[in-house]
Amino acid sequence: MHPDIEHLIRLQQLEDILEQARRTVADEPARQEALDAKLAAARQAFENERQLLTANQAARRDIEKDLAAQQARLSKFRSQLMDVKTNREYQAMQKEIEVAQHEVRKFEDRLLERMLEHDEVEGHLKAAERALTAEQAVIEEERRGLAAQLAEAQASLVRVAAERETVAARISPPVAAIFERVMKSRRISAVAPLQDGRCSACQVRVRPQVYNELRRNEIVFQCESCQRILYHPGPPAPPAA
Description:
Elements: H1 3-81, H2 87-169, H3 173-186, E1 191-195, E2 198-199, H4 208-214, E3 221-222, E4 229-231
Parallel strand pairs: 1-4
Antiparallel strand pairs: 1-2, 3-4
Helix pairs in contact: 1-2
């Protein structure tokens, strides 16, 4: 095996670890924002149900006030009925009583509807409260997990960067320069394994004579399409007879 190949493979592995750690650190604000949005949605759902319950209670109070007024009006008419002198006055008072009774029934029906609605809304509010409590617990657990991932990623950036410098120093300067140049242009990887005689990154097939040399990992060869450094991932092929 070419002396630089093994170090190049390890260097790429370290680059992959560093890239993942950098992404974890960079994505942390977005992850926290997503958790904040989930918690805000649960809180808003609870608040919506609480407002519905408050509105129901206010409506009930208004209906009860109107009902009490109509009941007082009805009681007044019934008291006055005893004082009427003529049949015409009696019929007029009876009409007033009927109207008042109708209004009382109407407000009683509306009050009953609100009472039934109150039970339903109160049930929804309790369910929303339970959901909010559960969501808060889940999100708190997720935040602890994210904090652990972030701490690990930050530690990896320091630890792996040090190992990267050590490995890079073992590679011959010309080959190291190729690696750095390709990493800069490709951003993700500068080293790629062969797969079925092709570059696994861009899928371009290598020439047969080059493939035979790459099977022994005895040369540093760049893909003629994407310029990545290629290597054979399996055991080296035996030398030709």
